[in-house]
């Protein structure tokens, strides 16, 4: 699903975001990406999304050589990737239902057509009874689960998350990580970046560790 071959990303000014990194994340796999602040986790995720391009090396995602994607193809390519961020980026002037429906509305579906999928996604994250509420009425953990429902609503084959538990306490963080596991159990490929090594280690899945842009460890923990 994701293949990095000897990828280096050097930012303007000379900062090295990622250095000669190679790995392969297979379709249907789940893995965690960890490392200190500035190690290159966000850079790696942005390269997968084609928000950045490598200075050298090649990146394949879902069978696409990302360097060959034309400008017009990129939005369609990104529709295959569900994204989860630390600050969940919800729209606070719309209901939970409308927030989750957003990717489907952008893809051209009507609100009525979306309803089944939106409710299925809310059900997966345990928020079926909250669809009419405004995100401001929900706790931080519930808001993050709305973000997860939005990421999976159009059934992407790949989910990427960047510090999805950054603002949550340990118990809520573990619950969010278990939701990623449940998405993976229905066949979605999942890559989660987190600096919380203890939490990641408890998940007992593959861990990719970055240190100053180098992939220093690729560990299977089964
Ligand atoms: N747009 C940019 N321009 C210049 N340098 C950048 C840019 N983005 C990231 N970097 C540098 O690349 C390196 C890796 O940054 P990155 O954000 O990928 O790390 P990270 O592991 O995600 O860190 P954090 O956990 O703090 O988010 C850092 O040295 C950073 O300063």
UniProtKB/TrEMBL annotation:
Transmembrane segments: none annotated. Belongs to the ABC transporter superfamily. GO terms for molecular function: ATP binding; ATP hydrolysis activity; transmembrane transporter activity. One of its GO terms (biological process) is cell division. The gene is ftsE. It is found in: Cell inner membrane; Cell membrane. It holds the Pfam family ABC_tran. Keywords: ATP-binding, Cell cycle, Cell division, Cell membrane, Membrane, Nucleotide-binding. The keyword Cell cycle applies. GO terms for cellular component: plasma membrane. Homodimer. Forms a membrane-associated complex with FtsX. This is Cell division ATP-binding protein FtsE.
């Amino acid at each position: 699903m994701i293949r990095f071959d000897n990828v280096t990303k050097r930012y303007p000014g000379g900062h090295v975001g990622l250095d000669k990194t190679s790995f392969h994340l297979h379709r249907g796999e789940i893995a965690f990406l960890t490392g200190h602040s500035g190690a290159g986790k966000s850079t790696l995720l942005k390269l997968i999304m084609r928000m950045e391009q490598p200075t050298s090396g090649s990146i394949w995602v879902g069978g696409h050589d990302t360097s060959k994607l034309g400008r017009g193809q990129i939005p369609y390519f990104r529709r295959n990737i569900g994204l989860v961020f630390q600050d969940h980026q919800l729209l606070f002037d719309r209901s939970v239902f409308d927030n989750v429906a957003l990717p489907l509305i952008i893809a051209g579906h009507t609100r009525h057509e979306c309803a089944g999928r939106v409710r299925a996604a809310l059900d997966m994250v345990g928020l079926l009874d909250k669809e009419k509420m405004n995100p401001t009425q929900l706790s931080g953990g519930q808001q993050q689960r709305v973000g997860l429902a939005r990421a999976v609503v159009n059934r992407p084959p790949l989910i990427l998350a960047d510090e999805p538990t950054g603002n949550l306490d340990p118990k809520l963080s573990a619950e969010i990580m278990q939701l990623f596991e449940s998405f993976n159990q229905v066949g979605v490929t999942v890559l989660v970046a987190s600096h919380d090594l203890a939490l990641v280690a408890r998940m007992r899945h593959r861990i990719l560790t970055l240190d100053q842009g180098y992939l220093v460890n690729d560990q299977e923990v089964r």
